[in-house]
C-alpha cells in the first residue's frame, strides 16, 4: 500500500514526464526521443467481462496497443480515408471508451484518420438509425445482426460496414 506522500510524489514525477498536447502538435517543439524500453510496460488496464470467471484486469502493454492499431490499419481490413479539406469519415460509437473495443476502435484507430466520432449514450435502435441519418455516418463497426439489418443496409451514405 502506498502512503499518500508517495502517491503524490509518483503523480508529480509522472506529470513532469508528460508532454502538453499543444506542444505535441506544435511542429516547432523539440520532442524528446521515445523511450523504446517502455514498450513492454503496462499502458492500459481494461477489465474483462468475467465470461470464464470473475471479471479481472487485463494488462495491455504499449506494444499490445500499437500492434492492434497496426492490425486495424492494414489495407485489407480498413478502407478509411484520411480526413482532408473535402472529406471526413464519420462513425457512430455506442460502446464506452473504457471498453477495450470502444477504446481501440472507436477512439485510437479512427483518430489516426481524423475520423469524426458521434458518441451515443446507449443503444436504442431508433436512436441509432436516426444518428446514422442525421450525422451522415460513412462507416460502422457492428456485430453481424446489426451490421446486416435492413434498417442499416439501406442508409445510402454508409460506405463500409465492418462486422
Automatic annotation (TrEMBL):
Pfam families: AMP-binding. It is found in: Peroxisome. Residues 37-146 form the AMP-dependent synthetase/ligase domain. The keyword Cytoplasm does not apply. GO terms for biological process: fatty-acyl-CoA biosynthetic process. GO terms for cellular component: peroxisome. The keyword Acyltransferase does not apply. This is AMP-dependent synthetase/ligase domain-containing protein. It comes from Acanthoscelides obtectus (Bean weevil).
Amino acid at each position: 500500500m502506498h502512503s499518500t506522500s508517495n502517491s503524490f510524489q509518483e503523480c508529480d514525477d509522472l506529470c513532469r514526464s508528460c508532454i502538453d498536447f499543444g506542444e505535441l502538435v506544435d511542429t516547432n517543439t523539440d520532442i524528446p526521443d521515445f523511450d523504446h524500453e517502455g514498450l513492454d510496460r503496462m499502458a492500459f488496464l481494461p477489465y474483462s467481462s468475467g465470461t470464464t470467471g470473475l471479471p479481472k484486469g487485463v494488462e495491455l502493454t504499449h506494444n499490445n496497443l500499437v500492434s492492434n492499431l497496426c492490425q486495424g490499419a492494414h489495407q485489407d481490413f480498413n478502407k478509411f480515408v484520411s480526413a482532408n479539406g473535402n472529406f471526413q469519415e464519420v462513425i457512430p460509437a455506442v460502446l464506452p471508451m473504457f471498453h477495450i473495443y470502444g477504446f481501440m476502435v472507436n477512439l485510437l484507430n479512427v483518430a489516426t484518420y481524423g475520423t469524426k466520432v458521434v458518441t451515443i449514450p446507449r443503444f436504442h435502435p431508433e436512436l441509432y438509425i436516426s444518428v446514422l441519418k442525421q450525422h451522415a455516418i460513412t462507416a460502422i463497426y457492428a456485430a453481424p445482426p446489426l451490421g446486416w439489418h435492413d434498417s442499416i443496409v439501406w442508409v445510402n451514405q454508409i460506405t463500409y460496414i465492418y462486422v
